[in-house]
Amino acid sequence: MSSEDILSEIRRDYIYRLIRNGERIDGRKFDEYRNIDIELGPIERAEGSARVKIGTTDVLAGVKMQIGEPFPDTPNQGVIITNAELIPLASPTFEPGPPDENAIELARIVDRGIRGSNAIDLDKLCVDPGNEVWIIFIDLHILDHNGNLVDASSLAAIAALLNAKVPNTKFGIDKDDERLAMNDVPITTTSAEIDKNYIFDPCLDEENAANVELTVITTSKGELCGMQKTGIGKIPVDTVPNIIDSSINMGKKLREMLLKVVEGNRI
């Protein structure tokens, strides 16, 4: 075993001992998030953008819109395309090149929350039925990775959409630019299992020590619209309802915080 592996095992054992005593390495409660900072509009040339920091995890989201053809099976609806880029400077585990399976999975989870909640009113993005619709590109750039990329990326994507305006004048449409129509504000919360305890917003060390993670996506009405299990561990069936209830409660708080920032930005 290498010295690096030995240090990892020592760190893992330390985290487990803390959890057994009801503590975490940064002093938080099991259901407590790190400090969250939301900045709207950092990218001037984008239709919408946001930068979200959860602790030192840092994600930049940009929204671009253009006119294009609809999918054949949804001729009257706009299109959403979500991509994630894991910038090598953000983590020693990220490598340059095309998106790997981790980037693809991250983008899919974020995309699933938007679609599963019907957050975007796709019908209102139809310009000419069967011919022209708005295509929304959501690009996620991971600037610093210290755990819980899913929640940070999802929050950044929703914040960027809430910040977005449809560029009608840019594409020659005879009406003023307008706010992107949103039906809902889905919130993603992730918990990690360590020694049969579930902690929310795991930092990177806690993620490395965890056996399994469960991501829960909830709507403004407190309804479940998506779930994602990550890791090789098992989650007892009887614990899932409790995790969902906690996710709904925390989702409500995060949503209120996000909407407060959005409203303050529009004043």
CATH class call: Alpha Beta
Order of helices and strands: HEEEEHEEHEEEEHEEH
Distinct helical segment count: 5
The profile of the biggest β sheet is: 6 strands, mixed
Averaged pLDDT: 93
Our estimate of the beta-strand percent is 25-35%
- Ranges with pLDDT <50 over ≥5 residues? none
Distance between the termini: 58 Å
User: What structural class do the secondary elements suggest?
Assistant: alpha+beta
Number of domains: 1
Name the helicity range. 25-40%
Radius of gyration: 20 Å
Task: Tell how many strands the DSSP assignment holds.
Answer: 12
Instruction: Kindly identify the CATH topology.
Output: Ribosomal Protein S5, domain 2
CATH-level-4 superfamily name? GHMP Kinase, N-terminal domain
Q: What is the correct CATH architecture? A: 2-Layer Sandwich
Notes on the protein architecture:
With 267 residues, this protein is of the alpha+beta class. It has a single domain, classed as GHMP Kinase, N-terminal domain (Ribosomal Protein S5, domain 2), CATH 3.30.230.70. It has helices at 3-20, 101-116, 149-163, 204-209, 240-266, and strands at residues 36-40, 48-54, 57-68, 79-86, 126-128, 132-144, 165-166, 178-179, 187-194, 197-200, 212-218, 224-230. The strands form three sheets. Strands 1, 2, 3, 4, 5 and 6 form a six-stranded mixed beta sheet that branches. Strand 2 and strand 3 form a beta hairpin. Helix 2 crosses helix 3. The model has no long low-confidence stretch (mean pLDDT 93).
